[in-house]
Specification:
five-stranded parallel beta sheet; Rossmann fold; about 25% strand; alpha/beta
């Protein structure tokens, strides 16, 4: 895997955008780096369908929200010298898997060598009970670098 093919996993947290800033400062003017902004969203809750919602409508809302995240991240990265040619974005549903498993699936499928995530500011007790995405990526990713940015 080539470490210069980098996924930046995004959500709407401040720490995710700290990670975007970090990558921008560190790699912004490098033309040999390829960045993919990735937002993975969960499947709709079961009651979503009972209330008349459709999967297409759910996906549309999620993609619109993700586009706002991508626009914000792209603005930051361009400010540091990242070019449009070196930047893509993807919005995917975690189809019957965890968010971390969905990130790793894309990483393997598309041959990315590095995943960058913001460290979630959750209490230790909650992390112990439910885990964290960054923790899962660090412990289950194989032959890749995982950068966890606080």
């Amino acid at each position: 895997m080539d470490w210069k093919r980098i996924i930046i996993a995004l959500d709407d947290s401040a720490r995710a955008f700290n990670a975007v800033e970090y990558v921008g400062r560190l790699l912004g003017n490098r033309e040999d780096v390829v960045l993919c902004l990735l937002h993975i969203y969960p499947e709709p809750p079961p009651d979503y369908y009972r209330s008349g919602g459709t999967l297409d409508a759910y996906k549309k809302v999620q993609e619109e929200q993700a586009q706002k995240l991508f626009d914000r991240a792209e603005t930051i990265l361009v400010r540091y010298g990242v070019t449009a040619a070196n930047l893509t974005s993807r919005c995917l549903m975690a189809d019957q898997k965890s968010i971390s498993a969905a990130i790793l699936d894309m990483q393997v499928r598309e041959h990315y060598g590095t995943i960058v995530v913001g460290k979630r500011g959750i209490p230790k007790a909650e992390e112990f009970l439910f885990g964290s995405i960054s923790n899962a990526l660090v412990h289950t990713g194989k032959d890749i670098a995982v950068w966890v940015i606080g």
